[in-house]
Amino acid sequence: MESKLLNLYHDTGIYQLELGQLVMICIGLLLVYLAIKKGFEPLLLLPIGIGAVLVNIPGAGMMAAPVYDAAGHMTSPGGLQYYIYHGGIETGLFPLIIFMGVGAMTDFGPMLANPKTLLLGAAAQFGIFATVIGAVLLGSFGIMDFTLSDAAAIGIIGGADGPTAIFVASRLAPDLLGAIAVAAYSYMALVPLIQPPIMRALTTKEERSIKMEQLRPVTKKEKIIFPIVVTILVAMFLPSAAPLLGMFCFGNLMRECGVVDRLSDTAQNALINIVTIFLGLGVGSKLSSEDFLNLETLGILSLGLIAFSIGTASGVLMAKLMNRLSKEAINPLIGAAGVSAVPMAARVANKVGLEANKQNFLLMHAMGPNVAGVIGSAVAAGVMLSYVGG
């Protein structure tokens, strides 16, 4: 009887728990706290946090691979998170479906009304490439053990686009997926804290007070033609970016064409919500103690913050330049919305603008570069996949 009780105790998670697993369970609970109490990207930080807790419970086998005998018969099924990760994230399925849903929720109108904002979305991607160079240098000098593929995956954090970061990391650096995903979504949630100091430091009060002219109306025909043209052009010139942009534009086309409202509604609501749950649990499965608790994770978090900050600054500086060269006034604050954190970055630009001028409403103007940033980050991801992964 005593030996049976002892064996039962040895099977408990308490007996098998290691210090690293305990730390990761606490980190998972911290993500849950930030999601519930602080409202930081709750739709993803909550399932990521729970996924981190589950995968670090010893003996639960949530990430265990299936076991087969010599005849090929399964003797032990795999864990839930194993199937979620390999079926939806490793294949790239979940990020692409989410991109389709985001496209169905996106209005290209502000960007089409002022096409110059495409330049701001492009400028904000400079943070991605600058960080890739920085990560490569850290690897070259032996400070961090980052390969070129790792550096490319880390750099995408600067685009502030979670699905894109996950999609690229799953292909170029799957061992770093957990840290990259947590960094990407954490910085997206912290946009209201990170961006304003950079925006104020690079602009004067007079620049922040600039009022922009009202945007022209955009026709339905323009909104239908644009996603089709973008998909074809990107697919022809940069095929590696076609999956991301193709699904994004397909979702947007469903929204704008007006003949598949049921499909558009499903993509915007039920489908994206279901996939978001599984995506979070799948990302959480990569937050095991052996994958996350190392010096590389600290390096990824630091480089991700640098990438995001450089992207914000690049967008603001490009907008300042455009304001000087353009006949029409351009408020430099909208350049900060060139990162892909839709619509948070646009709201932050509007808020900082209102602080300088109570009559200065920049939200719709900022949505142009914000949407352009989504396109820019997808193109940057395609460049990385083509250059590094090819």
TrEMBL record:
Keywords: Cell membrane, Ion transport, Membrane, Sodium, Sodium transport, Translocase, Transmembrane, Transmembrane helix, Transport. Its main location: membrane. The chain crosses the membrane at residues 14-36, 43-63, 83-105, 117-139, 176-194, 224-250, 270-287, 299-317, 329-346, 366-388. Its cofactor is Na(+). GO terms for molecular function: decarboxylation-driven active transmembrane transporter activity; lyase activity. Its EC number is 7.2.4.2. It catalyses: oxaloacetate + 2 Na(+)(in) + H(+) = pyruvate + 2 Na(+)(out) + CO2. Belongs to the GcdB/MmdB/OadB family. Heterotrimer of an alpha, a beta and a gamma subunit. This is Oxaloacetate decarboxylase beta chain. It comes from Marinomonas profundi.
